[in-house]
Write a sequence for this structure.
């Protein structure tokens, strides 16, 4: 199994970096952001892109933002390296401080991979050119079920809803489905459900937007650039849920 990562360092800009149109790292206010995350579940066998969006952040009183700059890289790791040694840089983007390029900036940087992760999504998801009202209603229902399952603190409701995502992401990441399922259980039961006074605002589903990405095979479901499909809050914590859906065998499913 070859693992692939997206690394982003940015500041002073609204920044969105992702793979094949999926926004995987977002800084909506222009503050500093730095980190790396696995992108194996998002890699197609062919024709991948590093997608970048930069814009001027809103002016806020008494807030000093860092110098405007952004640097993103896609790279692979040496298999089984105990130190996560980099094998190859596959794509990169950089906008330096003082760059005169007018904002907003939108870029798609193509790259290829040598050994695709064995996810099934790209062979099974339908390719769409548009979304009907019925499609949006079915996806809205998925997010509604997710919210209701969290509100009831019911893994019996949540795990079947997330079944495709769990199994396919496990394949892409080189894990067993049971390992991925256990991680999901720990997120909900071990962390979220342990929070007192957990609050799910059911009205959020009325604010959903839907955007086709990944060549029309996946839909990004969100409320705004800074607000994902579902936000769950308690007095001490805030949990956010980014939801991606696909139509497989004529049925909409949560897939990422």
């Amino acid at each position: 199994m070859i693992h692939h990562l997206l690394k982003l360092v940015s500041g002073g800009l609204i920044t969105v970096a992702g793979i094949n149109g999926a926004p995987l790292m977002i800084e909506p206010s222009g503050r500093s952001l730095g980190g790396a995350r696995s992108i194996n579940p998002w890699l197609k066998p062919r024709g991948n892109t590093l997608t970048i969006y930069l814009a001027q952040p809103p002016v806020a009183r008494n807030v000093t933002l860092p110098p405007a700059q952004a640097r993103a890289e896609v790279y692979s790791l040496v298999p089984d390296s105990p130190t996560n040694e980099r094998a190859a840089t596959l794509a990169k983007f950089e906008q330096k401080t003082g760059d005169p390029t007018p904002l907003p900036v939108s870029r798609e940087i193509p790259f290829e991979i040598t050994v695709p992760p064995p996810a099934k999504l790209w062979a099974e998801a339908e390719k769409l050119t548009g979304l009907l009202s019925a499609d949006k209603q079915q996806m809205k229902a998925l997010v509604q079920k997710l919210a209701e399952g969290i509100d009831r603190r019911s893994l019996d409701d949540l795990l079947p809803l997330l079944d495709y995502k769990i199994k396919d992401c496990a394949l892409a990441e080189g894990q067993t489905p049971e390992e991925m399922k256990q991680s999901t259980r720990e997120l909900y039961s071990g962390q979220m459900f342990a929070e007192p006074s957990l609050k799910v605002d059911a009205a959020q589903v009325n604010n959903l937007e839907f955007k086709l990405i990944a060549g029309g095979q996946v839909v990004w479901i969100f409320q705004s650039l800074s607000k994902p499909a579902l936000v769950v809050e308690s007095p001490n914590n805030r949990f956010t849920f980014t939801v991606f859906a696909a139509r497989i065998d004529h049925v909409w499913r949560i897939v990422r």
